[in-house]
# Entry
Amino acid sequence: MYRLNVSLAQLVQALAIAGVGLAIMFVPLALVWSIDRGFGPDILLSWRAAVDAWLLGHGVTLDAQLPEAVAARLGAEEALRPFSVTLWPLGIGLLTFVLSYRSGLALESAASGMAADHVERVEGFGGTPRPHSIFTQVLLWGVIGSTLTTAVVGFVLALTAQHETVSPSLVQAAYMPALVSLIGHVTAILWRHRTLIADFVTERLTIPAEWAMPIRAGLHVGVVTIVALVALGSAATGLTLFTHFDRMVAISEASSPTVLGALVMFLAQLALLPNAVVWAISWMIGAPVQLGTGSTLSPFEASLGPLPGIPAFGAIPSTIEPWFLALVVLTAVVVVALGMMAARRFMPEHDEWWQPLVAAVSATVLAATALVVVTVLSSGAIGPGRMQELGPDIGAVAAIAFGGLALAMSAAFYGSKGVDYVIGRDAEGGLFDSDPDDDGDADDAAAADDAVEVEAEPADPDHTETEQLDDAVAETEPDRDAAPRSEP
# Structure
């Protein structure tokens, strides 16, 4: 009963998640078909375009063959050959991931509630409850139900979008959207039980405490580094969009779109915004970004060829400015500074010299691996010929990420000692002191106790000095009893 109810609930949620993403793609195109074109062209064309965009956003490859008239207008010999579109609009897949993540959190809460209800009912009848079994079954069947439903939806949508011009891969459509949904659900469940999982892994792998502490600190700092890089990439993307806005408007006006057509173009570029952020991160760490075969953009070189008439491409700087190098330096400084602050927070003290090194390696592996993965996901092909290479140079990103972040994280963890000296910490109290006021108060209290003991301790245990002092006072003072009294 548990399995049936949960599977049905997850089936409905999976349909809703897929429906939301597909509706965002199809509704603007349907409005263009109905209002701008007066219900003239075939509505199936808009449907296929929406399905192709949704599947492409989940990593499904589109096999394309341009019509001869279109290929002749482009004037390129490569346009006559079949080509593949593999560039993921990460915004579409990110939407499915976030909705699946929320669904996974709700599934975990439902599983916990069902397990508690099972315990209450079974104990009421004097039986032996099995809460862990119920909890595991609910989670397992919930994840399986949502994953299979998404797989069926992707395959059916790919069947409806088959065409001689553009056709999505049926095999990839059967598992790529389902894989995104599965990752979202599993990530939510693991996040809810992250502490238990960390303790379980530590116990099973028998990791000593002196190793477990820097590894955990390194993973925390790695997450902080990832967030910092995303923030820097987002800021750089926003800056270049703002400074090149006039060029983007000129490119958009050249195509003379209607209001609804501009809306569709805006949504398409919005889906590619996460890709632009990843490219900006790669650019800011010094890795070159390929914008077509033979076209390279980096802070040190700009060699650009013809680009498609997409307004967002107008925000790409075409020349090298002197302050570009300052952005690269700023990125390194921010990463080291934030890493240093996080290191002082998550590893306030250590006993061995090698523990900061272990933490730095852990942070580097996590942050660099994440950067390489999103770089791979953000790269691909969007057209024939030279447009088959688009995105950051993956080899350069991997080399700079692992090498540069290793230096930055080592400076962050070992540099925390320098921060302690700068702010006046007591170096004898430890390399990373989590609460400097405690040591100072303890020292003051100890000094006060010593002073009290000194004052309380008698200076003359035999009382010889006290007796001599009393004799001297007696000799100097007149004898009050012997003095004559004046008679009235």
Summary: The radius of gyration is 35 Å.
